[in-house]
Specification:
Largest sheet: 2 strands, antiparallel
Structural class: mainly alpha
Radius of gyration: 20 Å
Number of strands: 2
Shape: elongated
């Protein structure tokens, strides 16, 4: 049940990131057309894309990437270890990652609340309210922390081979 919940949350966050990517492409296309055909680009286009769209695209899919074991792995020595040691390394590694992402979740949440309280703005081509985008980071980091904890639990009981990247249709729950 927890696995299904975490998988759905990961998929929803990845879907939102995909929507952000599409919006970024549409906004960029509209800006190019408006600039080239009408001589009036969208004011603050680069800032909006940088502050909102890029943050969505980078941080929200972290949990799904971790769920599928598609993060960068250097496993030269890992593959030479005996299976019990591989299991131990996996569990410790996932726990370290979970703690690291939990710390990032806490700190980015504190930073987002502070930005919200002072109604943080960015002054560029336009004034841009940036505090809402800061709440995306703790969501992404919190989700990957939970998925890392899930992986640590599964590393204790599942075969070591199940932690290799899987084709998309095999990671469905």
């Amino acid at each position: 049940m927890i696995d299904r919940f975490l998988f759905r949350i990961s998929r929803i966050l990845a879907l939102i990131a995909g929507i952000g990517l599409v919006l970024m492409m549409v906004q960029t296309t509209v800006d190019v057309v408006a600039d080239n055909f009408f001589g009036r680009p969208i004011n603050g286009n680069l800032e909006v894309i940088s502050v909102y769209h890029m943050v969505l695209v980078v941080f929200l899919p972290l949990a799904m990437v971790e769920w599928k074991h598609e993060n960068i792995q250097v496993d030269v020595f890992f593959l030479m270890m005996p299976k019990p040691l591989q299991r131990f390394v996996l569990v410790v590694g996932y726990l370290v990652c979970a703690v690291f992402f939990a710390i990032l979740t806490r700190q980015t949440f504190i930073d987002a609340v502070a930005a919200w309280r002072k109604e943080e703005l960015m002054m560029a081509a336009i004034y841009l309210v940036i505090w809402p985008a800061k709440f995306i980071l703790p969501v992404g980091f919190g989700a990957i922390a939970l998925v890392s904890l899930r992986h640590a639990f599964h590393a204790l009981r599942d075969p070591v081979e199940s932690f290799q990247p899987q084709p998309a249709n095999e990671t469905q729950i």
